[in-house]
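Section 3.1 - Work completed
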Amino acid sequence: MAAAICSGVPQTLFGNRRGTYILWLQLDRHRVVRVGRLGRLLFRRGCYGYVGSALGPGGLDARLKHHLRPSARPHWHVDYLKPWAVITEIWSTRSRQRWEHVWADLLYGLNALPVGRFGASDCACPSHLFCFSRRPRLAGFRRQWRQRLAGSPVPPIRRLIIAAPGAEPQKGPQGAGNAPTRKKIGRRIQCRLTP
C-alpha cells in the first residue's frame, strides 16, 4: 500500500498508464445544475459514481488531475457537477481495454438511479453517472466484476481516498444559474492509495 499526503493535486499516481475509473462524489443537498446540452438537471443529495475512461495521451494521471482541479471551462458533463460536490474516492484499473461501459452496467445493477444520458452521449449506456444513498463497497463491486468476466483475467482495482464526506466542494463557475452559495476555503487533499 502506498500512501501520500499532499496539498493540492498529487503530482503523479499512475504515470501515463491508461485505464478506467469511477469518481465518487458526495452532494450534501439537492441541487439543480445546468449541464451543457443536457440542460438543467436535479441532483438529489447523496453519493454519485461517475464512470469514465482515460485511454488517450497522459492516461489516468492526466484525466484524474483534470477531475481533481476546478474547471474554468467545463469539458465533460462531470465538470458541471464538480463545483457542487466533493470527490471522496476514485476507483481505477490500469488497462488499455475500455471497461467504462461494463463498469457503468455493474453500477446500474447495484440498485442505482441513473442520471439520464449523463456522460453517455457517445454510447448506448443509459448513463455514466449513478446516484446512491450510500457508496457501494469496493469488495462487492470487485466480486461482481469477477463474476462478469467469468474466468478471464481481471485487472486489479485500486482505491484512492481523496476527501472525507462533508468536506467543502470546489467553487462553482459564475453565471448560467450556477452562482456558488458557499465561500471557497483552502483544503488539503489527502491521498491514500490502496490496492
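Second construct:
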Amino acid sequence: MHYLMPGGGGVRGLAAGTTATGLIAVNGDVERSVLSLSKTRLFRDIRVAAFGDAALANGDVPRQGSTRASLITDAGLGLRMSHCIGQTSFVTSFDLPVIVSRPRLAVNERAQVFAFRWVVSATGGFVTGDRSAPGSRSASSCR
C-alpha cells in the first residue's frame, strides 16, 4: 500500500523509503467541493484537488554521483473525503502524483517523469492531534 504519513517534506510522489538529513519544502493545494452532505457522517464533504510539491534536499534526492542538495518536484490531482465517526473527524486523501521530477525515487517507481502513481493518506484529530476552533473548515468539527 502507498501510504503518506503527514509531516516531513510532504512530497507526495516520493517513495516512503526516500531519506534526507536536510530538507526545505513547499507544498500547495487548490481544492473545490463537489459534494457536501452535512447530515451524513461517513462522507461529509468530497473535494477535488490539484497539488504541487517542491523540496530542496540531500540524502537520496541528489542526482546519482552528486552529494549536493538538489531540487525535486511533483504535481497531480486528488480527492479529499471528510468523515466523522463518533466525535472523531478526519480527512482521507487519494492523490495521483502523475509528475515526479526524479522517477527513480517515485512511489510506484517508473522510468518516466509522467506516469500513473497513487498514494493515500489520512489527517485529522486522531492522526495529527488537531484541535481546531468550532466553525473552522478543518476536519475536526463533528457536529
